[in-house]
Amino acid sequence: MTLHTEKSTAEEDSDIIEFLNRKLANLSVASDAAEVLGKNDDGLPICEVSMLLPQYAHAIYNALHSPVRQLRLAAVVRLRKYLSLQNVDERVDNVLELNIIPLLIEFLETYNDNLLQYETAWIITNIAAGSTQHTQVLVAGGVTQHLIKVLTTSTNIEVQTQIIWALGNIAGDGAVFRDIILSAGVLDPLLYILTHYDRYDYMAVRITVWATANMCRGCRCSDPSWSLITPAFPILGNMVQLNDPEIIADACWGMSRILNGTHKHREHALVSDSSLCRRLVQLLCEESLSSTVHLPVLRTLVNIASGAEKQTQAVIDAGALTVLTSSFLTIKNLTLRRDACLAVSNVAAGTYKQVEAVLTEPKLLESVVALLWDNDMKVVKEACWVLSNSTSLHDPGHIHIILQHNIISSLIHHLRNPSTPCEILNKILDTLVNILSVGDVPGTDTLPESHNEYSVRLASSGVVEALIETWNNAGEGDKIKEKVLGLLGRWFYDYLPRNEHSDAVEDDGIDIASIEERVSRMSIMGGVDVF
């Protein structure tokens, strides 16, 4: 197997999905939401909003179909307030039982009544905040096309904002709904608003940025719809220049999603200079911002660094390594700590000079080595990736710097631990291969036998015993076993424990005899290059 450096884009974790606001109900109920609704003006029965349905479904249905505008509006307002209470799913079920989707579309296109349009869009927003089945009812009923039509024809900002909110909820319900909306051309009016943000109030801009970010959710570089969302990237980049934390956070989520998966398609270089990276690094330095802002900012930097050489260099030039070292590699927040390490590993997967930048950044490598002892295996995994990537160029100078930081003891610890995840073991073994590959010294006239300057050093540190334990801990057929045998056979065959008769023996339950037999057979056959 040929070793190679790897970069990774960061996925959204299940433990932060709630924060990501996939779907948002508009719960901004007016102060009279809990009022007792009377017959004063509209003739509708007296009831509290929470009891509107199903008890008074017949009265509401009749009011919605009334030729009297005031009565229709009153019924729509009551439904909106009803949907703005808790237990959204149950309330949406009750509203959909009225079979009023065609009527909502009709109200939505009542261009001479902005208030009715607005209240109707609000109802649709909260229906779309329910379950996927609820969203499916809206889409199947043709609501999305009419939402986009009104969005592009209405001149009322409040109506536009509420429609954008509804579309954001629909797009957040999955790739199928997202692609339906994107294919209908929804992004153009959204980007127009963001391009001319100074003409709109901040609420409109906030909702539009959030909805745009939702349109980017789950759309990877390899997806056909990816080309539809890439025009949003530079405009979202402009949004992070604003001083609104909500706008900054959502803009960064959008950019990080657009960049997701681009590490496998490095021809797509969306970051053309370091100005965006400088702003992102500046935001990381602002202690007044919470982790809910720092996380998407850092996630965007991680995914930028996963791209082409120019993008990775932009991250370095912006001073990201210094800030990551001083503020994030040692931070208590687990997700931020892990993502900081992931950003470093992406830079370390770059060119010679980029690896050099990682290894020479004061205290950076020291912090990464400390993370090898972290209590969270996700953090340990990223730290192992840093070491594997930093050694992958097989540069003697790089190896020398890394070995000065006493990494071997921590690697041995994880090799010996039977609960160490396979992905971590693989990266540790890759790192050892990288180091030992540099240490190979060919034979000379005075010293005919070829040797390895690092084999003795690692063997004396306990690496051989740790590898044997790793081999025994691995299950039958596990590829880890073959990688361990490759290491032992190529660099440590002479260091396998033997008794005085030169036969391998079992020691403390470790099946040395079996390993020695397989390694000996492999050596007789000329060796097996498993790396």
Description:
This protein is mostly helical and 531 residues long. The protein has a domain at 406-442 and 449-531. It has helices at residues 57-64, 69-83, 88-96, 101-108, 114-128, 132-140, 143-153, 157-171, 175-183, 187-195, 202-215, 226-229, 232-239, 245-259, 275-285, 291-305, 309-317, 320-328, 334-348, 352-360, 364-371, 377-391, 396-403, 408-416, 422-439, 453-460, 463-473, 479-491, 512-524, and strands at residues 36-37, 47-48, 440-441, 451-452. A two-stranded antiparallel sheet has the order 1-2. Strands 3-4 form a two-stranded antiparallel sheet. Helix 7 runs antiparallel to helix 8 and helix 10 packs parallel to helix 13. The chain is elongated, with a radius of gyration of 30 Å. It comes from Diversispora eburnea. Belongs to the importin alpha family.
